[in-house]
């Protein structure tokens, strides 16, 4: 019993000392570029976070398997986040659908 308690205490302490990895480290290069572009244009951090989440979600909704759906609205009910999410979703969903419609399919292998 003491061993289990000791291991759980050590694990808890170890978790506290691990460096925090910023969310942006997991973003695709495209989303990082979008984030940097929006920062350069003076948008709020809340709007940018929403835009990046919405963009990933729009890509996923349009069929891009490289993205996952993300919406942090229950934890981030502010208007800037929600507006950014809606804008990012519409932009990136349309962008991927346009790409998928006009892309040349790969040649079949014989």
Radius of gyration: 19 Å
Helix content: 55-70%
- Give the amount of beta strand, in percent: under 5%
Give the overall shape.
elongated
Low-pLDDT segments, ≥5 res: 4-25
Task: Write a structural description.
By secondary structure, this protein is mostly helical. The protein contains four helices and no strands.
Q: Any descriptors?
A:
110 residues; mainly alpha; 4 helices
Task: Give a quick summary of the entry.
By secondary structure, this protein is mainly alpha-helical.
What's the topology here?
Layout: H1 2-17, H2 29-40, H3 45-61, H4 79-102
Helix pairs in contact: 2-3, 3-4
